Structures are given as structure tokens and as C-alpha cells.
Amino acid sequence: MLEKYVMKQNKKLRCGYTTGSCAAAAAKAAAFMLLGGSEVRRVDLMTPKRILLQLDIKDISRGEGWVSCAVEKDGGDDPDATNGLLIYARVEYREKDGKEPLFVDGGEGVGRVTLKGLEQPVGAAAINQVPRQMIREAVSEACEAYEYRGNLNITVSVPDGRRIGEKTFNPRLGIQGGISILGTTGIVEPMSEAALIKSIEVEMKVLISSGLEYLVVIPGNYGTVFSRDELRISPSRSMKCSNYIGDTIDIAMGLGVKGILFIGHIGKFIKLSGGIMNTHSRNSDCRLELLTSAALKAGAPVEMLRELLEAPTTDDGVRILKECGYLKGTMELVMDRIGFYLDHRCLGGMETEAVTFSNVYGILGQTSGAATMLERIRKS
């Protein structure tokens, strides 16, 4: 177990290690056992973050010219679908054949890339560049220790990877048949915003590589269901951004996207009307205040404003506005401000439109060019 901790939101959380670290450690142990003959029960692995891991080796098996073993994935206090999986590496001798001396590939339960836009080319195993380098460096240590100059095959496999892969973003990204072997630092930091934002960039690149110039971006599951059932947008045509509206715009600008249509629940998107580009509740919770401010500008009476300000949820606030006849005018003002702040974030460098809805009342409002962009997206 890795005894490294970070503080997040006043909580002490334990770090873990990536599938890439597991694969590299297993490959290192298998190489030492193949070349040296002695059994290895624990290995040291220096991660790119310069944190030394000491990892237990499990399920050792041998055959003529090969050794296989595994390391158990530990995500620390940020466990994901891969937590607890055994990541195997099989190292075997190979005749010289023109390939690189230490050839890394994926076996059972490691996904294969089927779409352009990912780090690895179509047809390759979903083992990212940093883990591949970690694996080669780890195996090279054994080669140097035993002065071995020949070729080796290193095959990473995850027996339960196919089933677990279906629970991840991999199918949406065009990675079929298993999980990905990932990690840029070798260490999993709990609740890493950087990792979440990076995943947004990866998914966006896949959509762009498929030829899309205008993207549908949705914070979460509510928007996915609504856009599919009410707006007739296929889930394969959209991507999620969680709370990171501003970061998503920044990424899209850097990748040359022509336009984004944001579709989201009023509970999140009301915050955009105040220029809040990270909608997580820990950053801000002024939903009813912003809704009340817009209602005030729309001419709502003081008695209704007091009731609106004390509403327990934005959906309840929408109900109050609708019953009092101020919903349309209020939402026009809300959407005008949302449009202003989205455009301000990208400095007019691309088209940004938005549609907001309530689970009870359906579409509540849209920015001025949303209908036109939606029609363009449906035809593309």
C-alpha cells in the first residue's frame, strides 16, 4: 500500500498508483525472473513523479521461455472501475525480427484503439505512451542486470478487463475490448481536477477526428437523457464536461472547434448567468440569488421574490415563476446573460450557444443562436 497522502477540501486522502505503474512493475518482475531464474515477490518501481513504489507480485507462472505475473491496482482514496484488478505482464524471448527489441503489446482485457484522435494509432493496444516507456525502462533494468542483449515481447493483460472496460469511457472514445493502461505520473491523486480536464480534452479530440466541427457538450446525465429524448441528439454525438464549462471552452478554442452547443439543467446553468464557469457547489451556490435577480429585472413583485429566494431548489423556483407568470421574461434575461458570459470566455473566437431545461417543465430557454446551431448539428 502506498503511504502518500494529499489534502483535498480539508480531508486527508491516500494516493494510489496507475494501471501503467502496475504493468511496469509486473513486467519488471517477470523480466528479472525470466533472465535470472529466481522468484521475485516484490519490486521497486520509480514513477515519473519520482515517487518510489514497492509493489507485491502475485500469481507467478512460468513456461518454456516465458514468465507471467501480476500487480494489483490500488487507486487509493480515489478508486475507479479498475481498482483491485490484477494487471498482468508476460515477458518472453523473441527472435530478432526487425521490431523494436522490447516490444510492448496488449493481450486479453486491454482495449484496442478503433478511432482516430487518441494517443495511440488505430489498431494499437490502448497502452499510452508514458506507461509504454515505463514498461520498457523497467524491463531494461533486468536486461542490464543480466547483460541480456536480445529481444523480448512484453504483453500486458487484464483478465477481467473486457467487462470492466464497458463501465468506463472507453467505448465512447473508440477503445474496444478492455481497459486502457494509463498514467502520466504513475500516481493516482484523489479527486484530481487535472485528470478530469484531461479526459475532456481526450474525448473532444475523438469527436473532432471524426469530422465534427460543432460539438454538443453536456455537464452530466440529465443533459444526456434530455438531449436524446427531447432534442433528438444521439449520445454518440455529444460529450460530457462535468462542471468545467470554462475549461471546456478553453480546450475547444485550442483545438480549433468552430462552435459548441451547451445543454444543461437549470440547476447548473443558472450559475453561468453570473459568469461562473466552474459550476461545482464547492465553488459557488448562488442559484436562487441569480434566479431572483433575473426575476426582479423582469418586474416580479417583492412578495414573489421573497418566496423565490427561499425556494429549496431551482426546479421549485421555476414552479413559482411559472405560476406567477414571470417564467418567460425571467428566462429570457437569464439566457441573455449566459450568452454574454459564454461569448466573453472565448472572446468571440468561436460560436457558443446554450439550451437550459427543467426535468419538470422541459426547455426553459435558449440563447439567440441555439436553434440555428442545433439544426446544423442535426444535419451534420
UniProtKB/TrEMBL annotation:
- Record-given protein name: Cobalt-precorrin-5B C(1)-methyltransferase
From the UniProt record, which GO molecular function terms apply? methyltransferase activity
* Pathways per UniProt: Cofactor biosynthesis; adenosylcobalamin biosynthesis; cob(II)yrinate a,c-diamide from sirohydrochlorin (anaerobic route): step 6/10
Q: Does the keyword S-adenosyl-L-methionine apply?
A: yes
InterPro entries recorded: CbiD, CbiD_sf
The organism named in the record is Lientehia hominis
Q: What is its EC number?
A: 2.1.1.195
Keywords (A to Z) from UniProt:
Cobalamin biosynthesis, Methyltransferase, S-adenosyl-L-methionine, Transferase
HAMAP family in alphabetical order: CbiD (MF_00787)
Q: Which family does the record claim for this protein? A: Belongs to the CbiD family.
Q: Give the Pfam families listed for this entry.
A: CbiD
Q: Transferase: is it a keyword of this entry?
A: yes
List, in alphabetical order, the GO biological process terms annotated in this UniProt record.
Answer: anaerobic cobalamin biosynthetic process; methylation
Source organism, top-level taxon: Bacteria
What reaction does this enzyme carry out catalytically? Co-precorrin-5B + S-adenosyl-L-methionine = Co-precorrin-6A + S-adenosyl-L-homocysteine
